Amino acid sequence: MVNTRRGPSPGGSATGVHLQGIQKYFPANGVHALDTTSFDLRPGEIHALLGENGAGKSTLMHIMAGYMRPTSGRVLVAMQEQHFLSPADALAVGIGMVRQHPHLTPGFRVWEACILGAEPGFPLVHPRKARTQVRRLSERWGFDLPLDRDTKDLTVSQRQKTAVLALLLREVQYLIFDEPTAVLTPQETQGLFALFRLLKKEGKGLVLISHKLEETMDIADRVTVLRKGKTRASRPARSLHDETLQALMFGIDHTKPKKPVQDRPLSFSPHPVVPRTSAPLLLVQGLSVEVLGRPFLRQIDVSLFPGTILGVAGVRDSGLETLELALSGFLAPSRGSIRLRGQELAGKGIPAFRKAGGAYLSADRTGKALAPQLPLQESIIIHAHDRSRRGLLGKWGIMEQAFLDAWAKRIMAAAQVTGSFKTRADAFSGGMLQRILLARELAEKTALLILAEPGWGLDRKNRERLQGELRRYVKPGRGVLLFSTDVEELLALSDRILVLRNGAFSAEFRVDPRNKGIPMDIYKERIGQAMVGSIQEGSVHEAV
């Protein structure tokens, strides 16, 4: 890390982090991700960074946190210019980032992962004292983490908490949070925001990247908006309204006359009434899963009918991922039956699930859904390999590269993502990758689509587009099983919502397609209460 002292720039604060004239060019795919972008973070504030998918938010913050180097521009901390060669350099001056999908070293326990690289008393580390230090800090901030569990067995939300705890152990002054509430219940989000306010009170500066505008605007002190790699505005949060934000983020001109549209709440889109005379597309009976290191499932029953979307709500630690993996063949159940289109799949593995017409997209995007360090094409074509073995050469197992290239182009076009598919996957933004993965699964000839956190990383425009795509998918009689911790997402997409808590279904909500004047907040409150066990288990609710 090279430091060069310089005087404060005109109008700049002598404290805080300042990004000035940042440009980032990716020569591999010819993309200018950032174009003379500016941003600053002050001690004792919560600064929201907003913009649509591909606006450059994550790229800018990766530069601030040392994961990337800018093509040009300056990074200053307390007016001292920094040249970060790695995240360790940024940590050394008090900047840390909690990424959408935190990378933790497998084979280490949680407390070991927290102190890795900053071991107290190094080189003579005392394990018991180190663990005690982690435990005390975890208790101070109200984290409920299994400190002795292997990091590879953690859920997505537990990995996020572990990453936050590791930064707090290093006493960072500036924390960057990338989509931190994506896998949290409303109650957990309130707890996280309480932590944010406490960190702010202690003088720490926080950056919050989020597509959940309502909750973000409630907590942010300032807002910076990026669009197409440029800084469009940086203003106090209280001075911005929804229309102003949309204009800044998406380039919408609100001065033009609008065509009249039906005023229909996003969370209650009209779903088709599907007769229940047909047999269930997916029938799960008495399913129990007992795998060491994962939340158990007990006596799970599920019926998913053709033409419908069934939502499953819960915190990630409640068994959501266990159920996803069991249904898609990654985990073998200890008891019970899983039938897809009448075919028994319990314990028969992933190939049987896919052969029966099933597809699964994990919430663990960089762990299970794609290979971040390989060219993007490798992740796009995983289902197309067999189809590429054509003609005489195909009989010898040789894949046709022209077919694979054409397939990758088709998926990227469907996802509306530009750039080269030969570029490493991690060069694309999280929202772009999510759109590509969704397009990859929707392009397959399947009968059942299991999705986990499908809206994670998507801006509002692409969330609305996803609703239409899923409705078109189920219309011919297919089905979607939607796992999400985002209650608004579930309400926007689902015909029916089951709540999973402590490995069993605790409540069922029948979403009213006609919206009989029921406020969205009522649904959100009741579902959130069921997720944390505040309402009677086993109940069925029309709305309240």
Protein described:
- The chain is an alpha/beta fold and 544 residues long.
- The chain has 18 helices and 22 strands.
- It has helices at residues 57-64, 87-92, 110-115, 127-140, 156-169, 186-201, 213-219, 242-250, 320-327, 349-355, 365-369, 376-380, 391-395, 401-415, 430-442, 460-474, 487-493, 520-532; strands at residues 2-5, 17-26, 31-41, 46-50, 72-77, 80-83, 95-98, 174-178, 205-209, 222-227, 230-236, 282-289, 297-304, 309-313, 335-340, 343-344, 358-361, 448-452, 479-484, 496-501, 504-510, 539-541.
- The strands form four sheets. Strands 17-18-19-14-20-21-22 form a seven-stranded mixed beta sheet, sandwiched between helices. It has a six-stranded mixed beta sheet with strand order 7-8-9-4-10-11, with helices on both faces.
- α16 links the parallel β18 (448-452) and β19 (479-484).
- α14 packs across α15.
What's a concise summary of this model?
The chain is of the alpha/beta class and 544 residues long. The protein has helices at 57-64, 87-92, 110-115, 127-140, 156-169, 186-201, 213-219, 242-250, 320-327, 349-355, 365-369, 376-380, 391-395, 401-415, 430-442, 460-474, 487-493, 520-532; strands spanning 2-5, 17-26, 31-41, 46-50, 72-77, 80-83, 95-98, 174-178, 205-209, 222-227, 230-236, 282-289, 297-304, 309-313, 335-340, 343-344, 358-361, 448-452, 479-484, 496-501, 504-510, 539-541. A 7-stranded mixed beta sheet has the order 17-18-19-14-20-21-22, with helices on both faces. The chain has a 6-stranded mixed beta sheet with strand order 7-8-9-4-10-11, with helices on both faces. A 5-stranded antiparallel beta sheet has the order 1-6-5-2-3, with helices on one face.
